Amino acid sequence: MKRKEQGFTLLEMLVVVLIIVLLAGLVFRMVGAIGKSNDIAETRAKIEKVSHALEEFKAIYGKYPPVPFYHGQQQTGYEFPTEITWGENSEAMAKRIVENGKGTLSDWGGNCTVYTFGLASFFIPRYNGTAERGPKAFCGVKNYEQHDKDGVPQWTQFNSRVNGKLGDSDRDLNAVRRILPHLGGKLGPDNRIADSGCLSYWEAHRHHPFNDEAVVTNLNVTFADAWRRELHYVSMPPYETYKLWSNGPDGVQGTSDDIVSGSN
Question: How do the domains of the chain map onto residue ranges?
Fold first, then answer.
C-alpha cells in the first residue's frame, strides 16, 4: 500500500518564504537602481539644455546671466506675485506694501522678497504674460493717491524701459526667441510663452502672519531636477564663467553624486 503524500513542513515553508523575500528585495533594488539611473539621465539632459541656453545668452549679451543675490545666494527661479487679497481691496494692500519700499514686504518682518530675478528670468519675457498679471502697484504703475513711485525698486531696477515705460524691449524679446528653443520652448506671435519646455512652474500662497485673510499668490518659474529640487546657479562678476548643478540623488550639496556643468 502506497504511503499518503504529506504537505510541506513548517521548515520547508519558511525556506520558501525566505527565498521569496530575498528575490523581492533583489527585484526592488534593481528597479530602484534603474529609477535612479533614469533620474540622473533626466537631470543631466535638463542641465545640458540649460547650459546651451546659457551659451546662447552669452553669445547675445557678451556675459552669462548676472543673477542678483537674495538672502546671500543666487536663485534659479523667477518669482513674482500674481494675485494679492486683503479683504475686498487687493490694490490697497499692494499700495501699502510698495510704500514700505526696498522691494520687500517689510511690514511682514522684512524677510519676504517681492520679486526674485533668478536664472529663469533671463530666459523668458518678464512682463509679457507674467508680471503684467500681477497687482498694478508691483508692476510700476503710478498715480496712486499722493504716491508717485514706479512700483517696487527691484522691479524698476532690473527691467527695461520702452518709450519711458517698463516692459520687455525688442532686443530682449528677440533674445528670448533665440534662447527658449534650447530649453524646448518657444514664444508665440503675441510675445508670450507658447511652450515652456523644461521650465517648471510652482505656485505658492503666503499668508500675513497677523491676518489670515491677506494672501499673496506667488508664481515661481524655475528649473528643477528629477527629484523636484531646484537647480543651483552661480556666476560672479565679470560673469565670464558659471556653475550650474543639481545636488544629485542624495540631495546634499558638495557630495560625489552632484551633477555639475561649467566651473566658477
Answer: 42-263
